[in-house]
């Protein structure tokens, strides 16, 4: 075991270090919100694929502390070793396991490649040995690359418009200067690769594998996460390569319902969630500036939510046992409804036209964007002594 003083090492949208005590504090806050916001027991066994950060972590916490579920999580995270810090996701789950043990909850984690057959096999073995049939499956995997387990081909997703080049403005996360940006249009191979990584192929493989293993309970529900976004980002996001992948994900939900879950009385859904600070969203040009303006507007209107508040509302209003999900005209759950309110979007679009490098800090909530990004990795969390050495190694269980 080794202790070290851990400082943030940030390059643009990448943080190379994580602070275990800060990550633990973030998790404790989410557990408190889920415990107070959940309706109580009601869900038996749940699987969260992509359980270590963002919406996946908040889903795990909501299911366990808000609904009394026994949860198996699957993730791909780096543990700390010697004096080298592990990943933020690993420290998040280390605190989840500690808190679960203290409160008598059943949570396990399989740390491995969720895209690989070996990862699926390990999850299925754990479910058969210690859990049983699943009442709920969450698919929340975010990664830039995926290796097809059948062909062995590795695909890399891209963020490009389809059609004309995309011209807009963005904030440089290193210099905090707003500058113009042009993104060249996608080739057909870019579209295909992005669908392979971020579409529904892997979700369908998971659901079929669980069905073949007889691990789906009657009335089982599955959910994956998506985003639509505003007119400001439409050309680069929903109308671009990522949007095509999200279209594929939504079509896959219908396939899973018909071919896998309908015979059990269950359904698969896509939940469209709010724009929030995550490592994935921080990597998308334009989006950090949009989020900074959106946060300002939504906080002023008292309708801002973080990932845990979104997931508490998703299960409480839509996915808890006995609830009938409210769907839009194409069959999606919408917990981005407060973000997409006409008054919120109108105010955000107005600020978008006004914002410059000189007025960024006053016109937007960019300071919160910066702080929340660092908090993803356990930094700038109130009450933490960052000058103190901390234990680097942690355990899941």
Structure description:
Strand 10 and strand 11 form a beta hairpin. The mean pLDDT is 95. The chain has a seven-stranded parallel sheet, sandwiched between helices. It has 13 helices and 15 strands. It is globular, with a radius of gyration of 20 Å. It has 397 residues and is α/β, with parallel strands linked by helices. It has a single domain, classed as NAD(P)-binding Rossmann-like Domain (Rossmann fold, 3-Layer(aba) Sandwich).
Report the span from N to C terminus: 16 Å
Strand order, largest beta sheet: 6-5-4-7-12-13-14
CATH superfamily: NAD(P)-binding Rossmann-like Domain
Approximate shape:
globular
Largest sheet: 7 strands, parallel
Work out the count of structural domains. Answer: 1
Q: What order do the helices and strands follow?
A: EEEHEHEHEHEEEEEHHEHEHHHEHHHE
Quick gist of this model?
By secondary structure, the chain is an alpha/beta fold.
Topology:
Layout: E1 3-4, E2 10-11, E3 14-15, H1 20-37, E4 45-49, H2 54-67, E5 70-75, H3 88-103, E6 107-111, H4 117-130, E7 134-139, E8 145-147, E9 154-156, E10 166-171, E11 178-183, H5 188-198, H6 201-212, E12 216-226, H7 241-261, E13 267-272, H8 279-282, H9 287-300, H10 307-319, E14 333-334, H11 342-354, H12 360-363, H13 366-375, E15 390-391
Parallel strand pairs: 4-5, 4-7, 5-6, 7-12, 12-13, 13-14
Antiparallel strand pairs: 1-15, 2-3, 8-9, 10-11
Helix pairs in contact: 1-2, 1-3, 1-10, 2-10, 5-7, 6-7, 9-11, 9-13
């Amino acid at each position: 075991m080794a202790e070290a003083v851990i400082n943030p090492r940030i390059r643009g949208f990448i943080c190379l270090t994580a602070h275990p005590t800060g990550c633990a504090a973030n998790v404790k806050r989410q557990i408190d919100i889920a415990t107070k916001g959940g309706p109580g027991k009601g869900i038996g066994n749940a699987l969260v694929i992509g359980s270590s950060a963002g919406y996946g972590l908040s889903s795990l916490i909501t299911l366990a502390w808000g609904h009394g579920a026994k949860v198996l999580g699957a993730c791909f995270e780096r543990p700390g070793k010697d004096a080298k810090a592990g990943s933020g996701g690993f420290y998040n789950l280390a605190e989840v396991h500690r808190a679960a043990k203290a409160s008598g909850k059943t949570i396990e984690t399989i740390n491995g490649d969720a895209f690989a057959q070996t990862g699926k096999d390990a999850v299925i073995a754990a479910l058969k040995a210690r859990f049983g049939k699943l009442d709920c499956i969450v698919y929340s995997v975010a990664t830039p690359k995926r290796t097809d387990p059948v062909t062995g081909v590795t695909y890399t997703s891209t963020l490009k418009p389809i059609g004309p080049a995309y011209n807009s403005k963005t904030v440089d996360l290193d210099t905090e200067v707003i500058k113009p940006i042009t993104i060249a249009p996608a080739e057909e191979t870019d579209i295909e690769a992005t669908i392979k990584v971020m579409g529904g192929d892997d979700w369908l493989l998971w659901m079929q594998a669980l069905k073949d293993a007889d691990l789906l309970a009657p009335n089982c529900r599955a959910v994956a996460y998506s985003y639509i976004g505003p007119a400001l980002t439409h050309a680069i996001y929903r109308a671009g390569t990522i949007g095509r992948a999200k279209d594929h994900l939504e079509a896959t939900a219908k396939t899973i319902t018909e071919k896998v879950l309908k015979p059990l009385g269950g359904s698969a859904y896509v939940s469209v969630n709010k724009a929030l600070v995550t490592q994935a969203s921080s990597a998308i040009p334009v989006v950090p500036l949009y989020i900074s303006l959106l946060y300002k507007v939504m906080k002023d209107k008292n309708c801002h939510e973080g990932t845990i508040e979104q997931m508490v509302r998703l299960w409480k209003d839509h996915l808890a046992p006995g609830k009938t999900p409210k769907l839009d005209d194409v069959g999606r759950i919408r917990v981005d409804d407060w973000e997409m309110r006409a008054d919120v979007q109108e105010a955000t679009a107005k600020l978008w036209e006004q914002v410059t490098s000189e007025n960024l800090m006053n016109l937007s909530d960019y300071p919160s964007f910066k702080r929340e990004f660092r908090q993803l990795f356990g930094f700038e969390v109130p009450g933490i002594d960052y000058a103190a050495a901390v234990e680097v190694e942690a355990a899941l269980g």
